[in-house]
Design brief:
The complex is a heterodimer of chains A (about 350) and B (about 400).
Chain A: H1 5-12, H2 21-42, H3 44-53, E1 69-70, H4 73-76, E2 89-92, E3 103-106, H5 108-126, E4 131-138, E5 147-149, H6 150-159, E6 162-169, H7 177-186, E7 192-197, H8 198-211, E8 221-226, H9 230-233, H10 239-250, E9 254-259, E10 269-271, E11 277-278, E12 283-288, E13 300-307, E14 317-329, E15 339-346
Parallel strand pairs in A: 1-14, 2-5, 4-6, 4-7, 7-8, 8-9
Antiparallel strand pairs in A: 2-3, 9-10, 10-11, 11-15, 12-13, 13-14, 14-15
Helix pairs in contact in A: 2-3, 8-10
Chain B: E1 11-15, H1 29-44, H2 52-60, H3 63-73, E2 78-81, E3 84-88, H4 96-106, E4 110-114, H5 121-134, H6 140-143, E5 146-150, H7 157-163, E6 167-171, H8 174-180, E7 190-194, E8 198-204, H9 205-208, H10 213-226, E9 238-244, H11 248-265, H12 270-286, E10 290-292, E11 301-305, E12 321-327, H13 331-334, E13 341-347, H14 351-360, E14 368-371, E15 381-382, E16 385-386, H15 387-390, E17 392-395
Parallel strand pairs in B: 3-4, 3-6, 4-5, 6-7, 8-9, 8-13, 9-12, 11-12, 13-14
Antiparallel strand pairs in B: 1-5, 2-17, 10-11, 15-16
Helix pairs in contact in B: 1-2, 1-3, 1-5, 10-11
The chains are: A alpha/beta (about 350), B alpha/beta (about 400).
């Protein structure tokens, strides 16, 4: 057994938001140092990066001293820490057309850890019982089971926590009103689990329902959504407005956003009733200024994400391109321990100056 | 002779598309006075004077410099403009549109300048001044045969304008050039392309060590202007600094001065910081053995290369990232120079030795050898072309 498997099982046995700062600091120093050393030896490209940075791994270093990879490195390079033969599945980010996609290589062990941790975090939110589930997406999204898009993987991953999984959209991404109606009627007055991606729910569920004045009664549902707000920014729809629209369109009152990257599937961050995103036992966040110094609590900066799960690829410490702020640690009114934070969206693209292949037609 | 129909897809921002227009002699009096007036108009405008690129352009086309260029051009031959020059200006060094126009005008051509679709304050300021002058009686002929236009790439205007031009000047990268070249030009038309280039610097530490603090400070500012002023995206900005007679103290002294000035002048955006860091890390994987010499908080990030492989031009710095190499002898560098190499910026070396470095080694690259601080100084000699000669035809009179 992997030496850390015992530790992982021990963590899994605990409530996901039960570790206070002191214990977590020590755990992350030890475990992240182990992961950094492991990937240094197992992934040659990662080893070269550490060499270039002159990063020392002979003694354990605190979490904020750990090297971090910008997420785009997973687009540029095939970073893996296991032999090709051990790759169980490859996940790709759902990049917009023309853009390179991230490729995340999972062996069986890492994939299993992701599933277990996701379960831990989701059941903490929706309860241990499998609820009737409505997925606001089309079934066709999960067709290719060997090469997962982040969207397909997300749907499959979250579907494990529901039963009687019903897809609300047809292949052409139009809401199937009959199917939604049947689902609503069958489970009237009972708890239901609704899952989907933030922008897809908005564009293919909320908007068509509101536009056609076709309200649906999905009262008693818990809706979990993630994937980012980028496409909603132009429409000036924020979290509060989003929630009120869901209430208006379908009587859905329990709405939770989650935040996570395909590079760290499993150890996601979910929104509590206070509206804060929370780190669990399995993840942590560091916010850095433009010079990469850790920012004081409350200050906006670049979001670095830590996860204890990635063993088959060096994704335990990554630098996102999002701007966020840590709001507090161990003291959210919801009672969860750990850091909680807010994400403001992608860092703004600066205007590029120069003359190398830049003709913007 | 060309005839052009104004087209609804084409937005004319200044002047008139040339119709039945004939070329003129290079440095004709109207062209020279137009540019001198443009310079004076811009330098009187308080708003324009706040834009460094506009000021540099206005300074370049001042009366005295035009006279200087005229003197340099004068020769024994009869020459004429080629006719109509079609300029495709770069998106991200917007001001170059006007240098390109000035080259065309001085060479005796009628000009159609396609501006990038994205509006820029600098471009608007110069366009306003151009329009002001075009309205004057004395420049009626100029405004009747020169146009600044903007159009959507997709609508076929490039085809139309290319098919009727006598010279085409493409600023942009390799991809833009490939795109534009899908639109044919007439058999006799002449084309100048400014492709993706790579530039580097050679600094001599022994010479730099003798500089006074004040002179060193000036060289640090020069280096900043050559590089970070354009986010190191300019073709002529050095990415690699080759040190001769490297001694660590001198190098440190130079970089300390650059860092201090950069810290004052350069605001590093978070997204730029991530770009730079990703570039740095990618280089560790794709490049030769190397080591970051600086701390994360330093405004300049320096990477020491242990060798110079022949594809080192793939490694580009950005937002304050630079590569360094210690050479015992300049000859060590000769093998990396290929056609991509444009500018060699020097500090503390003899320019004649550098010129001979190019000729004796029979190098295919290095088109400019300029002192530190002059990397971005655009001129009629540019990118290996004598642009004025390219835009004129020479009449053999015996």
């Amino acid at each position: 057994m992997n030496p850390d498997q015992t530790l992982f099982e021990a963590l899994l046995a605990r409530a996901p938001y039960s570790m206070a700062q002191e214990e977590k600091t020590a755990l992350y120093q030890r475990e992240l140092s182990r992961l950094t050393r492991f990937h240094q030896a197992a992934c040659p490209d990662y080893g070269q990066v550490l060499g270039g940075l002159a990063h020392q791994t002979d003694v354990d270093q605190s979490a904020d001293q750990q090297p971090f990879l910008p997420v785009r490195m997973f687009k540029e390079f095939a970073l893996q820490s296991v032999a090709d033969a051990d790759i169980h599945k490859t996940m790709t980010s759902s990049g917009t057309s023309g853009q390179q996609v991230s490729r995340i290589f999972l062996d069986k062990g890492t994939a299993a850890r992701q599933t277990k941790v996701l379960g831990k975090i989701v059941t903490d939110l929706i309860g241990p019982k499998r609820l009737p589930m409505l997925v606001i997406d089309a079934k066709e999204t999960i067709k290719n089971r060997h090469n997962f898009s982040a969207r397909g993987a997300g749907i499959l991953g979250f579907s494990l926590f529901g039963r009687d999984v019903t897809f609300a959209l047809d292949a052409d991404m139009q809401p199937n009103l009959q199917r939604i109606e049947a689902f609503a009627e069958q489970y009237t007055g009972r708890e239901k689990f609704i899952f989907g991606f933030t922008s897809i729910i908005f564009q293919h569920f909320i908007q068509p329902l509101l536009a056609a004045k076709l309200k649906r009664d999905l009262a008693g549902s818990i809706l979990l959504h993630g994937g980012g707000w980028k496409k909603l920014e132009d429409q000036a729809v924020d979290n509060l407005r989003y929630k009120s629209m869901l209430r208006e369109a379908a009587e859905i009152t329990r709405v939770h956003n989650y935040y996570g990257m395909v590079e760290q599937t499993g150890s996601i961050f979910t929104e509590c009733d206070e509206g804060h995103l929370h780190c669990s036992l399995f993840s942590d966040i560091i916010v850095r200024d433009q010079h990469f110094s850790p920012a004081p609590m409350g200050n906006k900066g670049l979001v670095q994400l830590l996860s204890l799960l990635p063993e088959s690829y060096p994704g335990h410490s990554i630098l996102s391109e999002d701007i966020g702020a840590i709001l507090g640690e161990d003291d959210c009114r919801c009672g969860r321990l750990g850091k909680y934070f807010h994400i403001y969206g992608r860092a703004k693209q600066a205007e590029v100056r120069g003359c190398s292949d830049t003709y913007a037609a | 002779m060309i005839l052009m129909q104004p087209d609804s897809d084409l937005e004319i921002l200044a002047g008139t598309l040339p119709v039945y227009a004939r070329p003129s002699v290079p440095f004709n009096a109207t062209a020279c006075s137009f540019l001198a007036d443009l310079s004076a108009t811009l330098l009187r405008n308080t708003e324009a004077k706040q834009q460094a690129d506009v000021v540099a352009f206005a300074f370049w086309c001042r009366k005295a410099n035009i006279a200087h260029l005229k003197g340099r051009y004068a020769g024994n031959h009869y020459t004429m403009g080629r006719g109509t020059a079609f300029h495709i200006s770069p998106g991200n060094v917007p001001i170059n549109a006007f240098y390109s126009f000035a080259f065309g005008l001085l060479a005796g051509n009628n000009n159609i300048v396609r501006l990038a679709s994205k509006a820029s304050l600098s471009v608007n300021l110069v366009l306003d001044a151009v329009n002001l002058l075009f309205g004057k009686q004395e420049y009626r002929s100029t405004s009747g045969a020169n146009a600044f236009v903007r159009y959507d790439a997709a609508n076929g205007q490039t085809d139309i304008l290319s098919a009727r031009c006598d010279a085409r000047i493409i600023w942009g990268g390799d991809k833009t050039i490939a795109d534009i070249r899908k639109s044919p030009i007439p058999p006799r038309a002449h084309e100048i392309v400014f492709a993706d280039r790579y530039s580097f610097a050679v600094f001599d530490a022994a010479a730099i060590s003798t500089l006074s603090d004040k002179d060193l400070q000036r060289e640090a500012v020069n280096f900043y202007n050559d590089t970070l002023q354009m986010d190191q995206n300019a073709c002529s900005s050095p990415h690699l600094i080759v040190w001769q007679n490297a001694d660590p103290d001198t190098r440190q002294r130079f970089w300390t001065a650059v860092c201090a000035y950069t810290a004052q002048k350069y605001a590093l955006e978070p997204v730029a910081s991530v770009d730079r860091y990703a570039r740095l890390l990618s280089g560790f994987i794709t490049g030769p053995k190397q080591q970051l010499l600086t701390g994360a908080a330093d405004p300049i990030q320096r990477v020491q290369l242990s060798s110079l492989p022949s594809d080192i031009d793939q490694m580009r710095g950005i937002h304050g990232l630079f590569y360094e190499y210690d050479a015992n002898d300049l000859q060590e560098v000769a093998h990396i120079v290929n056609m991509k190499y444009q500018t060699l910026t020097y500090l503390g070396l003899d320019k004649k030795i550098l010129a001979e470095f190019v000729t004796k080694n029979r190098l295919r690259g290095i088109d400019r050898i300029v002192p530190n601080g002059s990397a971005l100084d655009i001129d009629t000699l540019w990118d290996g072309y004598d642009v004025l000669k390219e835009l004129t035809r020479t009449i053999d009179v015996r």
